[in-house]
């Protein structure tokens, strides 16, 4: 099992987004998330990536609980393009260099070429 969510529960205040939601994704499989605006697609990714935490339930990556230590590896091996992007402002050069201002990638800054 590559990625798994078990009994995920999550609410914004009184609004329940997930109530005992579970899924499994094996290596090589593709998963399509489809739904109306506000149905929880982006929230699910924020939960999996550890930007928010479920009220109940757990995520697993390659058989291990997706905790803070495992999240680091998971984030290096995946990518997510959120619907609302903030690449910064200014020249194309500034926008391209924007991700390299973060501590985790500051030593990988590209050259001007």
Task: Write a short abstract of this structure.
This protein has 113 residues and is of the alpha+beta class.
Please characterize this protein's 3D structure:
This protein has 113 residues and is an alpha+beta fold. Helix content is 21%, strand content 26%. It is built from three helices and four strands; from the N terminus they run ββαββαα. It has helices at residues 41-48, 68-77, 92-97; strands at 3-12, 15-25, 56-61, 64-65. The chain has a four-stranded antiparallel sheet, with no helix packed on it. β1 (3-12) and β2 form a beta hairpin. The protein is globular. The N and C termini lie far apart (41 Å). The mean pLDDT is 86.
Supply the key terms.
4 strands, 4-stranded antiparallel beta sheet, alpha+beta, globular, 113 residues, 21% helix
């Amino acid at each position: 099992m590559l990625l798994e969510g078990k009994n995920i529960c999550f609410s914004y205040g009184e609004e329940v987004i997930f109530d005992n939601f579970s899924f499994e994704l094996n290596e090589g499989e593709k998963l399509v998330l489809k739904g109306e605006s506000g149905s929880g697609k982006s929230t699910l990714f924020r939960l999996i990536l550890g930007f928010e935490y479920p009220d109940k339930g757990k995520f697993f990556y390659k058989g291990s609980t997706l905790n803070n230590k495992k999240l680091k590896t998971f984030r290096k091996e995946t990518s997510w393009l959120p619907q609302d992007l903030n690449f910064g402002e200014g020249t194309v050069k500034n926008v391209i260099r924007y991700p390299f201002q973060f501590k985790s990638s500051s030593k990988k800054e590209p050259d001007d070429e």
